[in-house]
Specification:
The chain has a domain at about 30-100. The chain has a two-stranded antiparallel ribbon with strand order 1-2. The protein has about 110 residues and is mostly helical. Helix 3 (about 40-55) crosses helix 4 and helix 4 (about 65-80) runs antiparallel to helix 5. About 55% of the residues lie in helices and about 5% in strands.
């Protein structure tokens, strides 16, 4: 294992920078349909996340929170590398998720 400047050891996964893959594969994350985040229709993305959240036996919280958390996780991990058009689709998918789960729309400041 590599040693960081702080003196803590870094795991081989962290050293390679692939911790987010480990999270999605081995944590209590959802089992997602392949290519869900590359779909062009925000409603299709939201429907897929809803299906995955409702079917998953690995989630710890309610289906809405699990689906929204996975979507937010993906957006945050992609960061500045996510094209604006795709970011807008994913943000629109959040609103669609709220509608599908009959949650109030997010308040705008």
């Amino acid at each position: 294992m590599a040693v960081k400047e702080s003196g803590r050891r870094r795991s081989p996964v962290a050293k390679r920078g692939r911790w987010s893959r480990q999270v999605t594969e081995h944590s209590d994350a959802l089992d997602l349909e392949p290519g869900v985040f590359t779909l062009r229709d925000p409603r299709a993305i939201a429907r897929s996340l809803k299906r995955s959240a409702e079917r998953s036996e690995r989630r710890k919280s309610d289906p809405f929170r699990s689906a929204m958390s996975m979507l937010t996780f993906y957006i945050n991990r992609a960061g500045s590398k996510l094209p604006n058009a795709q970011r807008q689709r994913l943000e629109a998918a959040k609103e669609e998720l709220r509608k599908l789960f009959e949650r109030p729309p997010k308040r705008r400041p």
